[in-house]
Q: What sequence folds into this?
């Protein structure tokens, strides 16, 4: 997933992959993406709003 439009992985795909039994790391993904978005002063694409 990208926070910029140049290289985009849809948020639903990130959520789907993070919820796979092999990973089950969606909360960690959401937190990491939020941390990066905060540093770049952008809204996280995984934010529920």
A:
């Amino acid at each position: 997933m990208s926070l910029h439009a140049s290289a985009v992985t849809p948020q639903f795909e990130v959520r789907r992959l993070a919820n796979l039994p092999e990973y089950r790391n969606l909360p960690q993904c959401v937190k990491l993406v939020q941390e990066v978005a905060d540093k770049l002063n952008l809204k996280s694409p995984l934010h529920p709003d």
